[in-house]
Amino acid sequence: MNRRAWRWLLLGLWINIAWAQAPAAVPLTLEQTNWLREHEPLRAGVVLQAPYAQFDQRQQSLSGASIDLLNLLAERLGSRLHWRHFKTHAELEAALRAGQIDVAPGLQQTPAGLRRWLFSDPYLRIPHLLVGVPSGAGSVDLESLGGEAPLAVPMPSAVADFLRGSYPGLQLREANNARQALQQVMAQQAAYAVVEASQVARLLRESEFAELAIVGDAGLSQLLRIGSRRDWPQLAAIIDSALRAIPAQELDALQSRWIEPAVRVSSTSPAFFRNLSLLLGVLLLSSLALMFSLRRQRDALEFRLLAARHEIELREAARDALRLAQFSIDHSTVGILWVNWDSRVHYANRATEQMLGYGSGGILQRPLADFEPSLTMDRWLNLWKRARQGGQGPLSFASDCVRADGSLLPADVSLSFMRYRENEYLVVFITDVTERRRALAALQESEARLQGIAANVPGLVFRLERPQPGGVVDFAFISEGAENLVGYSAGELMAPDRGLRSLVHPDDRQAYHRSQDAALASDQDWHWQGRILTRSGEQRWADIKAIARRLPTGQVLWDGIVWDISDNKRIELALADSRAQLRELSAHLESVREEEKARIAREVHDELGQVLTVLKLETSMCELSYADLDPGLHERLGNMKRLIAQLFQLVRDVASALRPPILDAGLASAIEWQAQRFEARTQIPCLVEVPDNLPELADGQAIGLFRVLQEALTNVIRHAGAHTVDVRLAVQGATLNLVISDDGRGFRPAAVGSSSFGLVGMRERVLMLGGTLDIDSQPGEGTTLSVRVPLDSEQAFISEEEQT
Predict the structure, then answer these.
(1) DSSP letters along 227-294, please?
(2) Closest CA to 118 of 127, 109, 126
(3) In CATH terms, are 331-432 and 441-564 the same topology?
(4) What stretches of 78-204 show up as alpha helix (H) in DSSP?
(5) Domain locations in the chain as residue ranges
């Protein structure tokens, strides 16, 4: 061959090699391409483990099967990688959780890893091989070893777990790594070692293990995958597309380079290379014509394979959906039947068989009349026609189906027409309503019982309903007792323009609406008493009480009753009138008594005072005239003068007790005077606070409040055991307040009740004044008595006395 021919031969060879090594296009969508550009460079992480990944300290570079594969993917995707290497898988997982890496090659899929990674399809299959001293007996079978030949296995590892589970009779010896496993074989501590193929390719090249060879396969292969971040599903889809685009021969070449044992090549002469070049030239000339067609066939085959894979995935999804639908139908709580036009069952799900008490397939080809006797052939054909033509009227009805044992099954039956391929069916749905009918019967019985009770209640029973918040409140029920109470039937009162409000007396409607509106607005209980008018115009007193209930749906109900309390009200009004008359009589008697006390006090003070004054003057005159005559007479006259003085004081005390003259100076002065007398008598400090300018009070008011003060101070002396007493008189608006408090032992007012005539008398005096009396006391906490009397109204007993 001349030089030109050699040039053309070498050029063709270079073009062929370059074309064969040209990266195949990765089928990415525009969205995937844009995403990849936005997230460049990708951060790749790898665990240093030869031959998958190793770091050259001198050149500061990474190499290995996983490094070459991911670099190849990045080149075909037109992306850049930023590599990081780690010593252990734990460091790699920590970097992933910290968000420092995006993708990692050379991983094995585990249940724990699925929570952190999205794994690609496997790209390398690494078998585990049996290594031992060759014996010439051929391949070693693990099942034939038994427990006589121990195996050295790196532990812990997946292959050790596999051998324990698959071959329980094997005798396994623990080794820390593949090298130590081979060393145990060399030291005859184990018959064979189970080593990963990648480690075999590296270790068997060493002279230490020159006597060993591969004698069999352990049966477990390690699948290597590419892991990506779980929060980037786009990256996982891109990696899967790129892996599918790599030709199988390139993956085989990658495995041959890094995983399989290297072929030792002996030294060869230069003539061999010349002959080899001539041979290659001849082969090149013969293969150039076939290369382009093979490439086209390969691309077409890959496209068809992708399409077939997609179609298989769609079929699997449809098959899964069909299985799920069949499972749902078989385990439905509703019975489903497919029935032919002749009323015979073509299909029945498990729920129907269980409800009707038949075994598997026991319903098929049986007529529906066996389960529903009312479905005669004529009726069935009529239903078939209506369902097929979409006739009017519901195709559902209540039924009592007959079970296999002859018992009845309460059920709701509904029909629906279905056309499937060339056949027509009526789909019959059977729902077990045993519990529903039992509940309905119980409800009807309860309603009947309620109607009977409500009809016999001596009054009107009603229910108000508000379906939703803010909705209109209306009557849902009024008992038949309305006829006896007001003369109107329940239907008349439930009319929209009637109700209870139409019965209320015109003078009481304002109070009725006020109480009802307040209860409805706050969803609270309702209570009202007032007058109503019957159909005949008769006036009656009614008492309405209703209890509010809120349902979980938001509906509010008021269940109530209207009582006729006319007789009780008449008795109550008569009793109130009687009490008012008694109080007026008591006020009149009290006024008469106070006036009598005042009259007696004046007579005692004036008449007895004058007599005592004259008697004192006469005694003094006798003393001046005759005392010197007889010493004994002088002493007797002195004793008489002292008795007259004591009688003077007794007259003043009696007059003050009947009506203190200090009252003529005003209530404030009388309170101060009474407090001073209390202190002088009991040695208990009594603090008094009265206004400077007290409005002018009626004589009855002043006397009444003064008597209340006297009775309160008397109770302090008798029962309180107090150390101090505080009396305050104040004017608040149109009210005069008198407060008497002590720091004594206190008591429970409810326990005393009406047994204390002192408290009853004070309360009656205050009521006659038109005021109120409150007692606040607890044992050990003292007592406070508060009296409030109006200033701007004249009291009845005063006006009556003035008229008298």
Answers:
(1) EEETT-HHHHHHHHHHHHHS-HHHHHHHHHHHTSPPPP-----HHHHHHHHHHHHHHHHHHHHHHHHH
(2) 109
(3) yes
(4) 89-97, 158-166, 178-186, 197-203
(5) 293-328, 331-432, 441-564, 565-659, 663-804
Exposure string of 749-784, with b = 16+ CB inside 10 Å and e = fewer, is eeeeeeeeeebeebbbbbebbebebebebeeeebbe
Quick check: bond before 270 cis, omega within 30?
no
Q: Higher-confidence residue: 332 or 74?
A: 74
- Show the tokens assigned to 596: 């009598």
Q: What is the Cα–Cα distance from 251 to 69, expressed in whole angstroms?
A: 8
Percentage with pLDDT > 70 across the chain: 78
Bridge partners for 731 per DSSP: 736
* Cβ(155)–Cβ(175) below 8 Å: yes
pTM to 2 decimals? 0.34
Minimal CA–CA distance to 705: which of 658, 739, 749? 739
CATH topology of domain 663-804: Heat Shock Protein 90 (3.30.565)
- Cα–Cα distances in angstroms (integers) from residue 467 to residues 196, 471, 525, 556, in the given order: 75, 6, 17, 7
Q: Which of 652, 655, 617 is nearest to 637 (CA)?
A: 617
- pLDDT above 70: residue 592: no
Q: What is the mean pLDDT of the chain?
A: 76
CA-only gyration radius of the chain, Å: 58
Q: Please give the DSSP secondary-structure letter assigned to residue 49.
A: B
- Under 8 Å CB-to-CB from 512, ≥6 apart: which residues? 501, 504, 528, 530
Cβ(589)–Cβ(698) below 8 Å: no
Q: What's the CA gap between 567 and 573, in Å, rounded?
A: 10
Q: Burial, 182: exposed, middle or buried (Cβ in 10 Å; 0-12, 13-18, 19+)?
A: buried
Tokens linked to 585: 């009589």
Segment 738-756 shows an average pLDDT of: 73
Q: If you average pLDDT over residues 146-163, what whole number do you get?
A: 80
User: Which CATH number among 3.30.70.1350, 3.30.450.20, 3.30.70.980, 3.40.50.450 corresponds to the domain 331-432?
Assistant: 3.30.450.20
Residue 16 CA to residue 292 CA, distance in Å, equals: 10
Classify each residue of 346-363 as buried b or exposed e, where b means 16 or more C-beta atoms within 10 Å of its C-beta. Answer: eebbebbbebbebeeeeb
HSE on the CB side for 504, CA within 13 Å?
Answer: 20
- 441-564 adopts what CATH topology? Beta-Lactamase (3.30.450)
Q: Provide the sign of the torsion angle of the four alpha carbons 273, 276, 282, 287, taken in this order.
A: negative
In 3D, which of 541, 567, 564, 558 has the Cα closest to residue 457? 564
151-154/172-175 β-pairing: parallel
Do the Cβ atoms of 664 and 703 come closer than 8 Å? no
CA 788-789-795 angle, to 5 degrees, is 160
- Upstream peptide bond of 51 is cis (omega within 30 degrees of 0): yes
Distance separating the N- and C-terminal Cα atoms of the chain: 165
